[in-house]
Task: structure prediction
Amino acid sequence: MENIHAVYNGKFDYLKNIKISPLSRAYTFSDSVYEVIPFFNSLPIAFNKHILRLKRSCEALSFEVDINAIGKEINELIFKSALKNGYVYYQISRGIDPIRSHLFDHDISVETFGYVVSHSFSSQKLKVMFCEDLRWQRCDIKSTSLLGNVMSMNNAKNKGCHEVIMHKNNIITEGGASNVFFANDECVFTPKLSNNILPGITRELLIMKIKESGIIVEEGEYTLNDLISAKSIWLTSSTKGVAQVSEIIDQTTNIQVDHPLFKKCEEIFISNFLM
Result:
């Protein structure tokens, strides 16, 4: 991990050499957005979808960016790394203030930063816990303001869990760093998109491909009891892929590890994106 390839404001270097101002609004206000772009066999997965989501996040915060130049930087990071499988983390902030202020200076320029690391896309069985969703009300923007996620996920880690499934007033939203799916013997369910749910790229890809295979997918509003009674639960993200839940702590569930419908969905995802 010594020589991690990175880029800062268009200049490529190793991550260890990059220095960022403490007056970056990413640091002082989390006034920034990010994207995680996975690649397999040196090829980005759903590159255009990730770039479009990054563009939408920037537009939501009125960042003026050259999205084509950013796309080239992301591809250049993958090329420079010479890695076979991994992901690029790319972040855009409003810029560097002359002095910290809630009211930003309109003359500052956006600040861009990214790096690339290797990653193994392996099957996972996750122990999770339920928790109240502590986050702000615009989770559809991929903001770096993730303190609610950090608090919940580290609390879960201290209890031996790998992830959390969050809810607002008993209604499922998403995982700490993932989207939620569950299934019975015949149908797959996932919470419908809203301001409380990030439109996950892996979520979108999985829904598209399993529908094409003839599997029924329903998007709606679901409760914790729906999960407790489900035959299978899994979480999706750019780095997790499709990862099944094996246990929800402090809950008696009907989870069947390696349920046939989950295995079919997992195989569809792998055959389309990780082969």
